[in-house]
């Protein structure tokens, strides 16, 4: 996956339809999440589409998230969210202003409210997970 800043540079120059395509492509680039991990326990509440997020830890203590969605755009959104925190230490994730990192993408104005309503819940779940591992 490309870096968040590279993605932002590309996103800024795209027309709305191309932005959708970019998000869909970003979702396709997510590491596959095994179906066995798509359970009620990993389901993000409050999303219009089903979104699953499963944390794993690396030997160095960093958190690596597996994620998936049953909707292509939503899968791209969770991929974008994960770009802000993937493979970081829990304390670094807690220090990351995810909303500010996503602000340049202006998702609330680019996508329908149905598509964006679950973003705060995705972010809250990631922060809650980081808090658990930081303690």
TrEMBL record:
This is SufE family protein. It comes from the Bacteria. InterPro entries: Fe-S_metab-assoc_dom. Belongs to the SufE family. Gene3D superfamilies: 3.90.1010.10. Residues 14-128 form the Fe-S metabolism associated domain. Pfam families: SufE (PF02657).
